[in-house]
Amino acid sequence: MMMNTNVMLGINEVADCVVGLYQSAQKNGHKMPVVSIKGQTGIGKTSIIEEIAKRLEMEYLLFDVPNMDLADAGIPMPNDDGTVTYLPNKTMGLHKNTAKVICLDEFSKGNPMQQTMSHPLLAEKNKRFGNIPVNDDSVIILTGNRTAEGLGDKLKGHTLNRIVTIEIENTSADDWLENFAIPNNVHPLLMAWVKRTPQVMEFYGDLDDPESNEFIWNPKIHNQSQKAFTTPRSLNTASGLLWAYTDEFISRKMLEAGLEGCVGVSASKEIVTFLKHYKEIPTPEDIRDNWQTAVKPTSAPSKMLVAMAGLSWVKSVEDLDKFIQYLTQPDFMATEGVAVFMKSATKVTDLHDPLFKAISHSGLFQEWATKNSHLFSNL
């Protein structure tokens, strides 16, 4: 009986796994396996491979396989003896005998000619692209979508037998906030909206009624149209649009047009509705100058925005102390509301991040966290 695996890794676990496999191969003298990363569209497969390259301190090389013209990598040149040699494009760095992290992006969607050209990179020894030798210590990573998404992903048996396939588990709203939104200065309005609308991170294949979620990718709808939808990738783009609008570089109409073409009409309408609450929250300067007189929003969405905004501007112990005193004023923010900021802040683990340094040295933060330790029991 054929069995399907249920073991999937979080996106950061995938990076840890690949780095660990490489370190083990270097220590024990065996060859690093080729890894194929599969996950839903827009979840961040390509981005995590860039992070792997940084951690391994290797040059990163991306082949966008389905859209790759062979001339992107090199061109065939005739020799005097009647043979042909494939000369590499210098910009790709294939002519240098150095170990690289090579991403064969969407390999499983490439046409047979593209796959044939790239397939020798999957070899255990004597790796090459076409007839161009590639350093055997290079890390080769394929990406693709889940077969259930109906995006044309398909690999032959002899290819599957040469690789290790790892599936990425769905990203939850909290995972996205912790691992991407906070470290990358995503607009606080967008963070607040995702926190209140966690279904934007759902995978249609996990739903009994996929059409009940109008925000996300659904092959029955999107394979037949050009409609936009929400993914971690498109939300990142939406963040840039929101910063452009709130910094007054683009108009409201421009924002709405961009959001509809980025995250879809349904998400765009809800995000734009949140905008009215954004104007109700105090600026960082208001809280820094006098937290006691800074305006205190009354609506639930506005309070959520206040908490999320703090994640983007609190950069010192002084900022943090003033923000805590502002949040914990009587008759303002419920303890659970304050915890939205507090718990998110504690998930920042970069030692060099100003927010990490602030929570490590703030007596007010430590006092609040100790008093409300039950709220941190699931961390």
Task: Fill in the keyword field for this structure.
43% helix, Rossmann fold, 16 helices, single chain, alpha/beta, 379 residues
Give your account of this protein's structure:
By secondary structure, the chain is an alpha/beta fold. It has 2 domains: 11-167, P-loop containing nucleotide triphosphate hydrolases (Rossmann fold), CATH 3.40.50; 173-376, no CATH class. It is 43% helix and 11% strand. It is built from 16 helices and 9 strands. The protein has helices spanning 11-28, 45-56, 112-118, 157-160, 173-181, 188-196, 219-222, 232-246, 252-263, 265-278, 284-289, 300-313, 317-327, 335-346, 354-361, 363-371; strands at 34-38, 59-64, 74-78, 84-88, 100-105, 128-129, 132-133, 139-144, 163-167. A 5-stranded parallel beta sheet has the order 2-5-8-1-9, with helices on one face. The protein has a two-stranded antiparallel ribbon with strand order 3-4. A hairpin with a 2-residue loop joins strand 6 and strand 7 (132-133). Helix 1 packs parallel to helix 2. The radius of gyration is 24 Å and the shape is elongated. 33% of the residues are buried. The model has no long low-confidence stretch (mean pLDDT 85).
